[in-house]
Each structure stands twice: as C-alpha cells, then as structure tokens.
Design goal:
The protein is an alpha+beta fold. It is built from 10 helices and 9 strands. The longest helix has 27 residues.
Length: about 260
Amino acid sequence: MDTTVYFEPKRKLEYLTKADIIEKLNDVSDGVKNLFKLTAEVYSSPSGKLVNNGTVITKQMLKEYKKSILTTLDKVTKSVKKLNEPRKNSKVTSFKKLICFDERLVKFFNEVNLGPAYELVDEGDKKKFVKKADDIKTLLPTFFKHGISNPTYIIGLFTLYLRNNPQLVCKNGQFFTADDTFNRYFKEYYDNIEYTTKSKEYIDENGKLKPNIIHRTMLNTLIYQLRVKTEKEDKEIVNYKDSVDKEYEIISNTTNYYNSLKRKK
C-alpha cells in the first residue's frame, strides 16, 4: 500500500489587468442578471427544474452558478486592490533606512580629509554656493558622535573622501586605489567582495581585481557589512531621523558644489 503523502504547492494568485477587470465586471453583471432570471423560473416551476436550450437547470446548478459568479467577483476585487496599492521602491527605502554603523567606519571618516561644507544661498535673482564650515565633520554630529546614519549618507561621505583625495581616483573615475588608511580599516571586508570587470588595466591574469583596486559599487556591499544591530536601532534610532536628514542635506549641497565645479570646466 502506498503511504506517500503528496502536497500540492500553494498557487500564487494571478491578478487581472485593467482590461481583464472591465471584461470580468461585464461578465459578472450579465451573470447576475441571468441568475435572477433563471432563479425566478426554476423556483416557480412545479418540478423545481427548468429546461433551457436542452439543458436541465436545477436548484443545485443555480447554487454552483452563483458560486462561480462570486468567485469571479472576488478575483476582480483583489485585482483592483492590488492595482491601487502604492508601489514601494524597496531600493530607495533600504538606502534611507536609519542604521547604527560599526565604529571603525566612524573612526575612518574622522581620520581622513572630507573637506569643507558648502550651502546654496540666494543672492538676488540667483543662487550661489558659499562655504558653511571649514570642516564638514563638525556639522555631522549624529554620525560622528552616535554612529547613526543611512547608506545614502555614507555613500555621500565616501564621495567627499574621494573628491578631497583625487590622487586615489583612477582615470575613468569608477575605480579608486585603497590607501593605507582605507586598508587599515576595511581591507578584511573588501577582499571578500567579488567584482568582475572588462577593464583589463585593473585586473590580473586570473581576471580578479588587482590589489588595492576598488570599484565604487563595492562600497555598497562594504556599507552593508558594517551595519551593527543594537537595541538602540530597534527602540531609539527612529528619533534621529530629522537630524540625519538635515545632515544629509549638508552632504548633498557640498557634493552639488563640487559637481558645479566640474560643469564649469
């Protein structure tokens, strides 16, 4: 005797398109009208049955017909709800989620040169960048005192680090060379990040990146690896959102200042 138990996998609900929804709603409307008509005729018949185009229609068949209509209506309803759901951009959300970072990330940025901070101010009918502080780090206490920010914020700091250390940036702008300070804090992390490229000047005979060569996109993985899960992250970190947003605005304005210099060249 076969005692094997077979499980049928749960089917994923397939949602209707807008065109399908309209078509199904018309079908439901016609079906309801037809159901009322047939129900009246069947229940008024002495035999409780009705012959329609050679088909014998019974009360049980009307129940199945009603069930079919309700099933279609339920699918239409779920599809409409799905279409009206706000679309979530998970990438944007995750890049702006507040995170407690490993102290070595804070120590690294404390040690390196990030340059001054700039802000955009109104000057008559025009806007102009002016220096806000000689050292941008003095305006970023949430990160430098508490280690709290988000991935977008940290990418901004790495951008300023490379902008103020141009000798590290390779000629195509997408690769940079890790200096002694970068290696001291992060070499154990980026050595384990897989990256392939067709740029022959940056790879060895095995197709791997040459020592100390890093592509900017590898920073995303590095940032992910430097997250720290703490009680603060669960209960208190949300309180830092406004301060992180304000500090990121300073980073963004400063980055935009450097970008404006590139456009003028």
